[in-house]
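[job 4471] stage=fold_predict status=RUNNING
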Amino acid sequence: YNSVEKWPPLPGTEQEIKNLGNSLKNSYYQVTYKTKSDATEESFKSLGTKDQSPSVIHLATHGFFYSDRVSNVNTEQELVFKISERPMLRSGLVFAGANHVWEGNKVPIDQEDGILTAYEISHMNLSNTELVVLAACKTGLGEIQGSEGVYGLQRAFKKAGVKHIIMALWEISDEKSAVFMSTFYENWLDKKMSIRRALDTTQSEMKDKYSDPIDWAGFVLIQ
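[job 4471] inference complete, writing structure tokens
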């Protein structure tokens, strides 16, 4: 994406999180929803500050990753997410209001820009979180740089203390993602499978429904 493009809406995600929220409630989890304009970067960054972080965090949004620093650009017009030399500033997640900044506009000093970078996530305290699910495009990507290992969102959430992360290696339609996630939560919560077994079983079941691996093979588990 460049600075004149917008993040498109994901119309299937609202129903997705409502379905998943019902599954969690049926398993006696306390559920809090943040959708549309309420799904702010501020609300996410508040997790783990006053109380322990939630045991499950599900994010249905856009993710981004620039594998290489963009050079030969007008730095006054380009976003820091493109031109930074730090890989963990070149990957992140999109929250409410992000398009305003992505188009090159400025936000008030006392407000977040709606673009949560991997660097910011890595400084959060999510040590009480058993599982983060990133139902977003390109969230599993990272950059291998010498002995430093893999950068990107998976490294950020692990540094924040998350035990298990499920994320997508490529863009998956929100319709197929919703089916995948509903099946996964059913296997994990209702059928009492481990997270690893629930993911493997879900991919097997999705394979029977959808012959194209692009619809289900992109989700991976990071432990």
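[job 4471] summary: The radius of gyration is 17 Å.
[job 4471] exit 0
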